[in-house]
Sequence to fold (144 residues):
Amino acid sequence: MGLDITHYKAILKLPEEISININNQIRSDYGIETSKSFSSFNVPFDYFKKYIQKIKINSTETLEGFYFQEVGYQRKGMNNKFWKKFCSSETYDYALLEDFHFAYESLKRNEAESKSEFMKRKQYFKENFIDNFEIGKSFLSVSY
Fold:
């Protein structure tokens, strides 16, 4: 297992062909965050107020929550500053633009990576995390 950084965005509806496991702790391309499960964020639940809705969890339970989808992904390649900020607490989900900028500034070149490969990866991160950030919708999720 290694470091995974994912940019998710809150959405109002899942595509019809998508089914997800609501109780699954491992996120994938699409997911649901509920008021009951919302504990690892650096913002309050109502930060996502434009997307919060009643979601039917099973035949007997309906909770407030929001759907989300993956819009960017980065595997490894971060410096120690990143680890100290994002990987040393019980917070794993970061929703502020300053967090995205901090992550971008924490990119580092891997030993096996050429300078041009690193620049491509840095450009990808900028386009898919920084340039694609939306207040009240985006969050950066860290898993390791």
Q: What stands out?
A: Residues 38 and 68 are 13 Å apart (CA to CA). The mean pLDDT is 90.
